[in-house]
Amino acid sequence: MPPGTVLDGMDSEPIDYGDLDRGRDCNYWNWDPTLRFEAERVYPDDEFAWAEDVLSSYGATVGHEIADNADTVDRHSPQLHTYDRDGERRNKVEYHLAQFDSERQTYEDARLTHDAFHAPPGREEPVGLLHPLTMQALLCYADVGLTCAASMTTGAAVVLDKFDDGSLSASLDGLTSADYEDHLEGAMFLTEHQGGSDVGAVEVRAEPQSDDTYRLHGEKWFCSNIDAQGALVLARTPDAPEGTEGLSLFLVPRERPDGSLNDAVFRRLKDKLGTLSVPTGEIEYEGATGYLVGEEERGFRYMTEMLNYERVTNATGAVGVMGRALLEAKVHAANREAFGGTIQEYPLLRRDLSRLTVDYEAATAFAFEAAKWYDRRERAWPDDGGQAYKLMRLLVPIAKYRTAELAVEMASEAMEVLGGNGYVDGFVTERLLRDAQVLPIWEGASNILSLDVLRALDRADAHEALLPYVTRRLDGVEHDLLSDAAETVRGRFEELQSALGTLAMEDDDYAQYHAKRLADLLFDVVSATLLLVEGQSEIEAGDARKALVARRFVATRFEDDEAYGVTAGTAPGNEFFDVLARYGSVAPEELAATLEA
User: Fold this and answer.
1) Among candidates 498, 383, 522, 384, which has minimal Cα distance to 450?
2) For 255, which DSSP code?
3) Fold designation for 186-298
4) How far apart are CA 534 and CA 196, in angstroms?
5) How many other CB atoms sit within 10 Å of the CB of residue 335?
6) How many beta carbons lie within 10 A of that of residue 505, not counting itself?
């Protein structure tokens, strides 16, 4: 039976990954029960009822045309032509035609950047930002670079929608257009050579002009989607204070409204390891025309709104990379014969694939929980005491940090499952690993994000929302199959509270030293809590599979592991392979009997 026919719970029969020859020419939405489960959980009910068909249609498009296009573009990546043969400046990026095909299917056919800002067909109101974030997870199954461009386009639209006074409405219309011929792509240019992650060190200057425009001078060092017509740029106006307080935000298009080239030089494209479909380069502004967004010296605040969206994108995008890596590994394991049988029959690989599936489910649950609270904050969701903002502020940097690292690990392990072929161009896993490696770097490396977690706790009092949030959910976990795991998580939750109290009493150096481990503990406690709640809910519907996932996650993260489990007398990755790795169902009483035996 084809996967994906049941959405209110997992499919009753294990997925036969041997039905595919490789992880393409299929519908990625239908082949990913985890993604479907989490999307249905976090979408508002009326929106999911509308979105389900859209996501399924886009999953098929990504699994067929865009997957093929992504391989082609990776072999024929964008090329920069700064000057023409006569020495005239062009700043022209040349793309393979396959890139335009993927863009058209994403922006026009699937309306990825449209539906959160304009009512789509079948609805009277726009959908929330959860929708493009979920679509971007699907797109990352095939093309992380195009996802970057689509995400920055949506993020730029978020900024203009919130802070523009109406003078840039034409640009907002272009960023959110569902007509490919009118559609504009967005970008954000923050990084300068001397600053890196220190955004306050920005030196690009913006000189005001009599016509209410500005002229920008200086260089931006790492400009992804370099030729975007909807690029947002941080710069410093005359007499502005130092640091982030003195930054203003400008829309700086590649071309002026009259079609003339803006005064900038695209110096070169970076020779990157991966994400080759999105051109990244260096720009020297030589009096380029810029248009102020909002008010002067509020640019960093405006840009953090886009940065929040990009960080959630990074997390849901990492989910897509992990989903594709797992699919490739499972398909290969179901088809590859060695030593008289398919390699998925062997206990050690069963253990690996089961473990990876559990890790994937935890990462997806956490990423989409962060996306949910981000979306609720954007909708000004009714809550008590700013809960949505506090939870978004805490969960988003953790989601970005942990899912990015897991995506790299999972892409690497999938490559290993494919063996030598996995290391070779044409078998996808080598490109997945190259593309995944940027995820820990984009929008803040792990240390930066871990320090941001400290700021969320200190400045936003995020713990005031976190503690009751976890407590309420753990209190609702009551089934006997989950009681031991829930008690273990409660113990770790108490340790987390103790850790928060310790860091509140110690100095900054001490807190910074432990920041990353604190973020790890937060991720594990919240992920375990989410999986336990999901397990409880699914048991009530008659399926104990999610309970098994929760138990395995808690065991691998929190429980004692004497002799690394070798003397435990159990082999759950082998015993429950069809349930864990192949998404089979198991009745609660059957699971209980097996565990007791």
Assistant:
1) 522
2) B
3) Butyryl-CoA Dehydrogenase, subunit A; domain 2 (2.40.110)
4) 40
5) 16
6) 8
Q: Could you give the CA distance from residue 133 to residue 232 in angstroms, rounded to a whole number?
A: 20
Confirm if 438 and 275 have CB atoms less than 8 A apart: yes
Is residue 33 within 8 A of residue 3, CB to CB? The reply is yes
Q: Any idea what DSSP says for residue 107?
A: I
Residue type, 410: M
pLDDT per residue of the chain (597 residues) written in tens, 0 to 9? 445 443 333 446 899 999 999 999 999 999 999 999 999 999 998 999 999 999 999 999 999 999 999 999 999 999 999 999 999 999 999 999 999 999 999 999 999 999 999 999 999 999 999 999 999 999 999 999 999 999 999 999 999 999 999 999 999 999 999 999 999 999 999 989 876 778 888 999 999 999 999 999 999 999 999 999 999 999 999 999 999 999 999 999 999 999 999 999 999 999 999 999 999 999 999 999 999 999 999 999 999 999 999 999 999 999 999 999 999 999 999 999 998 999 999 999 999 999 999 999 999 999 999 999 999 999 986 666 689 999 999 999 999 999 999 999 999 999 999 999 999 999 999 999 999 999 999 999 999 999 999 999 999 999 999 999 999 999 999 999 999 999 999 999 999 999 999 999 999 999 999 999 999 999 999 999 999 999 999 999 999 999 999 999 999 999 887 888 876 788 888 889 999 999 999 999 999 998 887
What is the residue-wise DSSP string for 265-311? EEEEE---SS-TTS-EEEEEEEEEEEEE-SSTT-HHHHHHHHHHHHH
Report the C-alpha gap between 420 and 533 in whole angstroms.
Answer: 40
Two structure tokens written together for 198: 């220190």
Q: Where are the domains of the chain?
A: 186-298, 447-596
Whether the Cβ atoms of residue 187 and residue 156 lie closer than 8 Å to each other: yes
Q: For residue 425, give Cα distances in angstroms to 129, 333, 466.
A: 35, 19, 44
Residues 351 and 571: beta-carbon distance below 8 Å = yes
Q: How many residues are present in the chain? A: 597
Q: Tell me whether strands 205-208 and 214-224 are parallel, antiparallel or unpaired.
A: antiparallel
Classified as helix, coil or strand, 535 is helix
User: Distance between CA 131 and CA 125 in Å, rounded?
Assistant: 13
